[in-house]
Specification:
7-stranded mixed sheet; mainly beta; 4-stranded antiparallel sheet
């Protein structure tokens, strides 16, 4: 299966914005969901946001609510994470993930996802 490919990471000052992109493959199953996670050195992988293929089922981690927006464009097979009002604590490698199958809700658990990208680094300086 075609791997997930993230892009858009970089360095920004606190209060700035970045938009991450993730190119994904359409799984054999008709239903799937996508998610963003992040990981800092020495830390566990942390949930950021998730969305179903239909565009519904959006959930966010409390730490990013009101600042980050997840979206997807199925025609382009691309998922986005618009990150505004960035803080130094947002510094991490950001990973996109794909979960195949029909589920009533999106999942915040990394173990539920089947495919992962290589990650893109986001660094926020104070």
């Amino acid at each position: 299966q075609v791997p997930l490919i993230e892009s858009g990471g970089g360095s920004v000052q606190a209060g700035g914005s970045l938009r991450l992109s993730c190119q994904y493959s359409i799984p054999t199953f008709s239903d799937y969901s996508l998610g963003w996670f992040r990981q800092s050195p020495g830390q566990v992988r942390e949930f950021v946001a998730a969305i179903k293929w239909s565009g519904g089922g959006i959930i966010y981690a409390d730490s990013v609510k009101g600042r980050f927006t997840i979206s997807r464009d199925n025609a382009k097979r691309t998922m986005y994470l618009q990150m505004n009002s960035l803080k130094p604590e947002d510094t991490a490698a950001y990973f996109c993930a794909e979960r195949a199958g029909a589920f009533s809700r999106s999942s915040p658990y990394a173990a539920d996802y089947d495919l992962w990208g290589q990650g893109t680094q986001v660094t926020v300086s104070s």
